[in-house]
């Protein structure tokens, strides 16, 4: 059955597994599904023998900060000394240091860098990626980032879904007047629409960044302009961003590590997907990885993601995040697979095309060097992909070194 909506609550434990299956692909589309025995009588121009390997949909990565200049390896020492993430930001580092680097990096360099990271994501089995702006915080650099994401989507086999995160931090010159800065970013909505540069608008709702009322006003303007909504919410301090995501009908509320009981209840009774980022909790040294277990138990739909960015989660390895989700969020392997495929696709508006192997859908498929689906979260920190197929074409194959 090709279900339409995201997979919620206890349904996330119910994973469809076929043994000795075969998949027929014509051009870029899955045209046939059946048993290996039936497939042997079909006339195929080319076959790939999976040799008993696990085969799954291509992974969907629903939350990345793909396009940025520079890197922040020097911040690691500050983190080791115990300087909190929001304190580094307050002192003009963190996101703001990547903003300076991104402003200073040319369009061409940003594009090369983004394509490099996309290549790496592809090797890890990711076939669709969400990409946010948010390291410009001015008209020129935000549009530069979004145009880079658009060209990367045209140039690279992976599909990129673009989000405008101009409201990612307050530039120092607007410190006393965040509302004026939000108005400036909202002033870009029409241009972004006209150039078709983003489908979603996102905001960082957090202490020292944007408040819940500011976020509400900004996101309502975005919604009026026809954008889908996303929120970086309840990541560090519980401000009620989860509730706001539900109130505004956001497609996803992201982070939600410190969501309130009320927020979890509302999320469970909504169509908003919780995009949970346990790699960020790991990388920021949090003891508490968040409440994904309670969210699923309450009936919510959850996706998981790397949050790939140069500051709070520096990895393209979604398989590693699957292990952290198992070990720290206590999600089951079945829940985790839903969270990186069908639910992740729904979290970025691609529920009808990505995240599933089904007749009529794009042939985005991964062959794994693994005997079963339990194995990927179990054997952690390494890359298990054997072959990655995007739109019916093999884009990556593991090489033997012998
Ligand atoms: O999702 N929380 C806000 N933004 C990013 C981090 C960006 C950065 O540190 O550069 C996140 O964690
Ligand atoms: Fe993020």
Short description:
The chain is an alpha/beta fold and 402 residues long. It contains 17 helices and 14 strands.
Provide the fold topology.
Layout: E1 21-26, E2 29-35, H1 36-39, E3 54-57, E4 59-61, H2 75-80, H3 85-90, H4 95-104, H5 107-123, E5 126-132, H6 139-155, E6 159-167, H7 178-186, H8 189-194, E7 200-203, H9 212-224, E8 228-233, H10 241-247, E9 252-255, H11 261-268, E10 273-276, H12 278-283, H13 292-298, E11 302-304, H14 318-328, H15 333-339, H16 342-347, E12 365-368, H17 375-378, E13 385-390, E14 393-397
Parallel strand pairs: 4-5, 5-6, 6-7, 7-8, 8-9, 9-10, 10-11
Antiparallel strand pairs: 1-2, 3-12, 12-13, 13-14
Bound molecules: N-(iminomethyl)-L-glutamic acid and fe (iii) ion.
Fe (iii) ion is lined by residues 63, 65, 232, 307, 309.
Low-confidence stretches: none
Query: Strand sequence of the main sheet, in spatial order?
Result: 4-5-6-7-8-9-10-11
The coarse silhouette is globular
How can the largest sheet be summarized? 8 strands, parallel
Number of helices: 17
Q: What is the straight-line distance between the termini?
A: 43 Å
Folded structure, characterized:
The protein is of the alpha/beta class. It has helices at residues 36-39, 75-80, 85-90, 95-104, 107-123, 139-155, 178-186, 189-194, 212-224, 241-247, 261-268, 278-283, 292-298, 318-328, 333-339, 342-347, 375-378; strands at residues 21-26, 29-35, 54-57, 59-61, 126-132, 159-167, 200-203, 228-233, 252-255, 273-276, 302-304, 365-368, 385-390, 393-397. The chain has an 8-stranded parallel beta sheet with strand order 4-5-6-7-8-9-10-11. A 4-stranded antiparallel beta sheet has the order 3-12-13-14, with no helix packed on it. A hairpin with a 2-residue loop joins strand 13 and strand 14 (393-397). Helix 11 (261-268) crosses helix 13. The longest helix is centred in the N-terminal third of the chain and has 17 residues, at 107-123. The structure holds N-(iminomethyl)-L-glutamic acid and fe (iii) ion. Residues 65, 94-95, 98, 204, 232, 235, 280, 307, 309-312 line the site of N-(iminomethyl)-L-glutamic acid (NIG).
